[in-house]
Amino acid sequence: MKNRTLGILAMLGAPFLGIELLLQHQAHTQDMRLAGLMGMPYALGWLGCIWALYRLEAAGSSRNGQAILTIMLFLLSMANAWNIYAAIDPTANTIVYRIMDICWPASNLFMVVVGVAVMRANYWADWRKYVPLAVGFWLPLSVISSLVLGYESMASVLVCSLYSMIMWTLLGYTIYSTDDSSIQTLSL
Q1: Over the range 48-74, which residues count as b (16 or more CB within 10 Å of their CB) and which as e?
Q2: pTM over 0.85
Q3: Residue 163 near residue 141, CB atoms below 8 Å
Q4: How far is CA 188 from CA 5, 32, 144, in A?
Q5: Integer Cα distance of 4 and 35 in angstroms
Q6: Closest by alpha carbon to 97, among 111, 110, 115, 78?
Q7: Would 10 disulfide with which of 42, 75, 130, 172, CB 3.0-4.6 Å?
Q8: pLDDT single digits (tens) 84-134
Q9: pLDDT mean for each 10 residues of the chain (188 residues)
Q10: Where are the domains of the chain?
Q11: What values do phi and psi take at 92, rounded to 5?
């Protein structure tokens, strides 16, 4: 799949987490089926971006750079498997369900590692090299905004939602605006 296609899919999926957070806040509930359904397009777009970073060797062509992106692909695949599980059985309480659920915060935290690797590899010489790291700051920013503004406050939900929508859209645009001609023929 071409970078332009992956970027478009990511930009289309980017708002879904923010929308889900706003809907959950308005309903004053945590609907796991809604989280799973809204998480699927969001995660698929994110997965596409990481796959493009892998093909571009944007985290470096070294074994470490590629391993970082492979780990990220695994975490996001497991997180998206949770989305499917949650959409089908939102009240599940199995060990598999819980392990897959842990992959959501793990993938958000690991995005900081991805961002640092992309910055250090210096694949892009412009603003795009900072976007994966900025995406990685979503979870820390969400925790801080919840502590400062209040866990259930609309202000905190807006900060988290808007940051998510903007950063994942920028990640999609970063991939969209990158020429396919530099892609290496790679396989996992």
Answers
A1: bbbbbbbbbbbbbeeeebbebbebbbe
A2: yes
A3: yes
A4: 20, 32, 36
A5: 27
A6: 78
A7: 172
A8: 999 999 999 999 999 999 999 999 999 999 999 999 999 999 999 999 999
A9: 94 94 87 90 97 96 96 97 94 94 96 98 95 97 95 92 96 94 58
A10: 3-180
A11: -60, 145
